[in-house]
Specification:
By secondary structure, the protein is of the alpha/beta class. The chain has four domains: 3-120, Rossmann fold; 126-316, Rossmann fold, CATH 3.40.50.300; 319-400, Helicase, Ruva Protein, domain 3 (Orthogonal Bundle), CATH 1.10.8.60; 419-481, Arc Repressor Mutant, subunit A, CATH 1.10.10.60. It is built from 19 helices and 18 strands. The chain has helices at residues 11-23, 34-43, 60-70, 85-93, 106-124, 152-165, 181-190, 209-217, 234-237, 253-265, 291-296, 302-308, 325-339, 349-357, 363-377, 404-425, 430-449, 454-461, 465-481, and strands at residues 3-7, 27-31, 48-52, 54-55, 58-59, 76-81, 98-102, 126-128, 144-146, 171-175, 199-203, 242-246, 267-269, 276-278, 282-287, 312-315, 346-347, 382-383. The strands form six sheets. Strands 2-1-3-6-7 form a five-stranded parallel sheet, sandwiched between helices. It has a five-stranded parallel sheet with strand order 11-12-15-10-16. The chain has a two-stranded antiparallel sheet with strand order 4-5. The structure holds adenosine-5'-triphosphate (ATP) and magnesium ion. Magnesium ion binds next to helix 7. Adenosine-5'-triphosphate binds at residues 145, 147-149, 175, 177-183, 288, 328, 364-365, 368.
Length: 482
């Protein structure tokens, strides 16, 4: 359970915030005075701290500095009164993660808090490299991730990580989807001299282009309509730390130009601002696209690419290191068995053979999801080959008609793969949308599998044809509205 520490002398607000967070399933500790809060943080660790800036008998900046010293990685969100934005920005320079202007809305609170908690998770969950002794079985420790694989190609990867981690150079990570690029980026961070500084991951493809630049570089109040307060961008927030730019090929050309300036001169301006801000951020970029092709076709700046690619770590697809498949399978088996409180202990010989010969087009992520799913559905203490059903395409055979069971399995795999991401997003309001989205995905997949035949699709989904028709009508109305 994630732990939140609330520090404010306003008892009413403390009461409201405690209830708000407890309902969401967080463990909450509260404190009404600064000096007392400083005592508490000496012996208790938290995942997030909300700190009121203005309290009697204490200076907010001083409290912040002491919290930062005691809990380097815990994000601190400063709460300030209207009109004290300058103080808040000063506090961010001293290591606060973000600020909230009182009175704030629940939506704003939720957004900032869930973002900060996500950053906290990524900073605190250590990614370990394999030990020098490769024959020890991987033993996952909770709160830690481990990079698994003994193949020669992976050994090369570990060597490179070791060589570059401690230097401050930018790193480019390439490889197909699901090969572990993000994991490697996090490993570099955890082994770097910046490991006590912020780590922020940004997916360049996930944020709409018109918002991306302001997310990255921030904006001044009044920079555009709706910019009610100064917003500190991720780059500035990450000062001194490491910024992971995932799917960098999707970054627009104008943002690329600004990023290049950050890399070359260590400076930028917030949107709508004239003041030049100095930063020192280490960039780790990743892409599953052919970057040279992107450059040739004019979608990616050549100068930025040259600057990023000086150190390139390429992650081989799983099919090129088949000797790692079973190591990974065993690792995921023990991890998920513990995570889902199951006592699954091993893979049958036939299952091992099946896993080893699958081409794994989705790489490690696909293998991980396969094992996760098998552990969830099994009732015994081992996994047999029947727990792993691949589509004919994946097994290299021509496509044949699949049974209903097999179709359902594939639907489940697709959904299970997105569940963790969905759960991290789930918040008031967003929840309903997500359920709708999942439902629609399921319906679309079922229809596709059944060649558009509604009777079959309804049967596959286990709902009546009428229900399906009703849902389809709703989907149609929605798409007309949007
Ligand atoms: N060598 C490995 N050992 C253990 N787990 C791994 C390894 N490689 C990948 N994984 C796991 O597989 C999943 C996918 O990895 P990751 O997200 O790093 O891939 P990616 O290359 O960033 O993929 P994409 O391009 O689709 O974003 C993650 O859950 C990660 O923890
Ligand atoms: Mg990734």
């Amino acid at each position: 359970m994630e732990k939140i520490f609330l520090i404010d002398d306003d008892e009413g607000l403390i009461h409201f915030l405690s209830r708000f967070f407890e309902r969401k399933g967080y463990e909450v500790t509260t404190c009404l005075s600064g000096p007392e809060a400083v005592r508490i943080i000496q012996h208790e660790s938290f995942d997030l701290i909300l700190l009121d800036y203005k309290m009697p008998e204490s200076n907010g900046i001083d409290i912040l500095t002491r919290i930062r010293a005691a809990q380097v990685k815990t994000p601190v969100i400063l709460m300030t009164a209207y009109g004290s934005t300058d103080i808040a920005i000063e506090a961010m320079k001293r290591g606060a993660y973000d600020y909230l202007v009182k009175p704030f809305e629940r939506k704003e609170l939720s957004r900032i808090v869930s973002e900060a908690l996500q950053v906290n998770r990524q900073m605190k969950e250590i990614v370990r490299l394999p030990d020098a002794e490769p024959d020890g079985r991987p033993l996952p420790i909770s709160g830690e991730l481990q990079i698994i694989g003994n193949s020669k190609k992976m050994q090369e990867v570990y060597k490179l990580i070791g060589q570059v981690a401690e230097s401050d150079v930018s790193v480019m990570i390439t490889g197909e989807s699901g090969t572990g690029k993000e994991l490697v980026a996090r490993a570099i961070y955890h082994h770097s001299t910046r490991k006590d500084k912020p780590f922020i991951a940004i997916n360049c493809a996930a944020i709409p282009e018109n918002l991306f630049e302001s997310e990255l570089f921030g904006y001044e109040r009044g920079a555009f309509s709706g910019a009610e307060r100064t917003h500190i961008g991720k780059i500035e927030r990450c000062n001194g730390g490491t910024c992971f730019l995932d799917e960098i090929a999707d970054m627009s050309l104008s943002t690329q130009a600004k990023l290049l300036r950050v890399l070359q001169e260590g400076e930028f301006e917030r949107l709508g601002g004239s003041q030049t801000i100095k930063v020192h951020v280490r960039i780790i970029a990743a892409s599953n696209k052919d970057m040279e092709m992107e450059v040739r076709q004019g979608r990616f700046r050549a100068d930025l690419f040259w600057r990023l690619k000086i150190i390139t770590i390429h992650l081989p697809p799983l099919r090129e290191r088949t000797e790692d498949i079973l190591l990974l399978a065993d690792y995921f088996l023990s991890r998920f068995s513990r995570e889902y409180a199951k006592s699954v202990r091993y893979l049958s010989e036939a299952a091992r053979k099946k896993l080893k010969t699958c081409p794994w087009p989705g790489n490690v992520r696909e293998l991980e999801n396969c094992i996760r799913r098998a552990i969830l559905i099994t009732t015994g203490d081992f996994l047999s080959e029947d727990h792993f059903i691949f589509s004919a395409q994946e097994e290299g055979k021509p496509l044949s008609r699949l049974s209903r069971e097999q179709l359902m399995d594939r639907l489940r795999i697709k959904l299970e793969a997105i569940i963790p991401e969905v759960l991290h997003l789930s918040e008031d309001g967003i929840h309903a949308n997500i359920m709708e989205m999942v439902e629609e995905t399921l319906i679309r997949m079922a229809l596709k599998e059944c060649g558009g035949n509604q009777v079959h699709a309804a049967k596959l989904l286990g709902i009546s044809r009428n229900t399906l028709r009703h849902r389809l009508k709703k989907m149609e109305e929605k798409s007309l509205l949007s």
